Amino acid sequence: MDQELYPRNRQEFVRQFATEQQCEDYLIRLRWPDGFVCPGCSGRKAWRHPRGHFECSSCGRQTSVTSGTLFDRTRKPLQLWFDVIWAVVSQKNGASAKNLQATMGLGSYETAWTWLHKLRRAMIRPGRDKLHGAVEVDETYIGGSEEGLVGRDPATQKVLVVIAVECAGKKLGRVRFRCIPDGSSAALLPFVKDNVEMGSEVITDGWQGYSGLTSGGYRHTQKIIPSKKEAARTLPHVHLIASLLKRWLNGTHQGRASPQHLPYYLDEYAFRFNRRMSTHRGKLFYRLVSQAVRQDPVPYAKIICRPQ
């Protein structure tokens, strides 16, 4: 990877994005690494206007570097967006909306909450590599309510989450999560198929919902768990991930991840955990901004599921 694509520390970040123009140029480089491509006609030639818009020389369509991305129609400067993204990725456990509002000077809790949810939608890269090798899979219940927006159900609700984690001896590899309606084969087997390479060893407890894994092309190892107290010893990797996930939700977000938005909190945790060994926080910044310019716009109404 080109080391110049991301700042390695806070000082480099400040120098690299000291102006709005530097931020815009960075997005241009990430969105069109091989040169401008018109979103209308795929033309490769364009005029750049003083205000930053590109006008396609073939069809005349005007396009900004932020249009059609996560930053679409933003009224805030890119410098503020970059500051927020750096704050989110540079902290080991991330940031809550309340803390982000205070530290970044955002106008309201709602703004901070919305920005975080926009960013979470860019944290999972489409087509990412599947888990492989020995992979433990199990389910856990996660429950909680979320404050800050009108109209959410304040009652605590439990959500069933299936977890997969690569095992390398005693070490933890990459993780995957999915909220599922129940523990049936109809919910569990598609999760494994979507997230684990065929032919891998899938290690589970004796639950019948996993009974179709062998016929599905996996080496299925079932471990009988004599009691709940023995579960963590029998499937240590996946139970440790479940514990760390709940600790993160309760610590950083005070357990206030509603069932409606829990999948995106899971995406954030997977993004962080799978990159925990990165040498520089700037690499996470680079990954998130790169994915943000490829993410379709996410308006507030879509986040809270209101008709636009």
Structure description:
This protein is an alpha/beta fold and 308 residues long. It folds into two domains: 3-31 and 66-120 and 283-303, no CATH class; 134-275, Ribonuclease H-like superfamily/Ribonuclease H (Nucleotidyltransferase, domain 5, 2-Layer Sandwich). The chain is built from eleven helices and eight strands. The chain has helices spanning 10-16, 20-31, 78-90, 97-104, 109-120, 185-195, 231-234, 236-252, 262-273, 281-292, 300-303, and strands spanning 46-48, 54-56, 62-63, 134-144, 157-168, 171-180, 201-204, 219-222. Strands 6-5-4-7-8 form a five-stranded mixed beta sheet, sandwiched between helices. Strands 1-2-3 form a three-stranded antiparallel beta sheet, with no helix packed on it. α4 (97-104) packs across α5 (109-120). The chain is elongated. Residues 145-156 have low confidence and may be disordered.
Structural class by SSE content: alpha/beta
Helix content: 25-40%
Share of residues in strands: 15-25%
Averaged pLDDT: 91
N to C succession of SSEs: HHEEEHHHEEEHEEHHHHH
Helix and strand layout, with pairings?
Layout: H1 10-16, H2 20-31, E1 46-48, E2 54-56, E3 62-63, H3 78-90, H4 97-104, H5 109-120, E4 134-144, E5 157-168, E6 171-180, H6 185-195, E7 201-204, E8 219-222, H7 231-234, H8 236-252, H9 262-273, H10 281-292, H11 300-303
Helix pairs in contact: 3-10, 4-5
